[in-house]
Amino acid sequence: MPELANDLHFSEKVQNLKPSGIRIFDNKVSKIPGIIKLTLGEPDLNTPEHVKQAAIESIKNNDSHYAPQKGKRELLEAISNFLAQKIQVKYDPESEIVATVGATEAINAAIFTLLNPEDKILVPTPVFSLYWPVANLAGVQYSLVNTAVDNFKLTAEKLETTLKTEPNIKAIILNYPTNPTGVEYTKEEIKQLAQIIRKYHLYVITDEIYSSLTYGVDHYSIATEIPERALYISGLSKSHAMTGYRLGYIAGPKKVMEQVSKVHGLMVTTTTDSSQAAAIEALNNGYEDVEKYRKIYEKRRKFVFNELTNLGFDVVNPQGAFYIFAKIPAKYGKDDMQFALDLAFKKKVGVTPGSAFGPGGEGYVRLSYASSDDSLRIAMKRISEFLKEDNEDD
């Protein structure tokens, strides 16, 4: 096994990057025999059959050559039509949309494109722990804003207050429905944020990968309100249980998308042919699949929310995605890591410490209900037993 030569070095910027706290914890508890993992945002449902068949036919037909850099025309048209219906913004398939390797690549391409080294990006937390490491990698600054005291939403007032004290902010991240809380913004809240973003001449990178999975509320995209300032990011991973296909997309004004396309080409050249074929089928003929999956998640959401509430947890009411964010018992203070470790090793239930999602998540844990009904029932029973035994030990 080769060892690196003593006279060689590598990027300090990369060396200083911290691995995902979500993955670190998941790897730590995955080795526990018989554990029920409610840790990762991985749908337990299968990709719809007609979508799988589209990918299979693509392979059978030797669809195995380089696709156009931005994506196949048929896919870009499908995305354009979908967004025109969903968020009432008509993006030109030729010049305003790029198909990416998942939403992750889209986020990377957006941050690398928009910001200079002296610029700063604002990231409301708790949120999926990708955005600020990508900013680090891109060599730009970031500001993490704790939204816990505002019901886990970035308010227009807090945004403006932050902008007055941090003039280098040039873009903000919005992810909603939010991972890890499942919190959704109202139309009025989005309109208020849009006013501030316009006033301070900012970009908004809006990651709406969970927007098809909402419960009892209508999703309103900030790209609908300020399309001239928004880079809209989404994909098929969550809506159609296609995480392994790695198919996302980014849309925005032509001038900035010309630059995004260049970064995308340098990062990955283009996306996979068979994944694009599957995405075309999902977007054109997969509405009923989304609604079917949404109803399954909604039922699970209600079950887990009620169970945890009955057990005495202070639970954030999720209106979207497939996560529950629960405050840990008072005896643990804000030590969500210790609570999650105790639960995993004593009762074999894996949940993700809230601190993995930034300062706004401290003292909470995230549970994913993208798991089978049986697993969720067993997990809730084990959590109940854990709390009872934990109280008896006091």
UniProtKB/TrEMBL annotation:
Entry keyword annotation includes Transferase: yes
Main enzyme class: transferase
Molecular function per GO: pyridoxal phosphate binding; transaminase activity
Keywords for this protein: Aminotransferase, Pyridoxal phosphate, Transferase
This protein's name: Aminotransferase
Protein family according to the UniProt entry: Belongs to the class-I pyridoxal-phosphate-dependent aminotransferase family.
Residue ranges constituting the Aminotransferase class I/classII large domain according to the UniProt record: 35-383
InterPro entries: Aminotransferase_I/II_large, AspAT/PAT-like, NHTrfase_class1_PyrdxlP-BS, PyrdxlP-dep_Trfase, PyrdxlP-dep_Trfase_major, PyrdxlP-dep_Trfase_small
GO BP: any one term: amino acid metabolic process
EC number(s) given by UniProt: 2.6.1.-
Leader sequence residues: none
Keyword Transferase annotated: yes
Cofactor(s) this protein requires: pyridoxal 5'-phosphate
Pfam families, alphabetized: Aminotran_1_2 (PF00155)
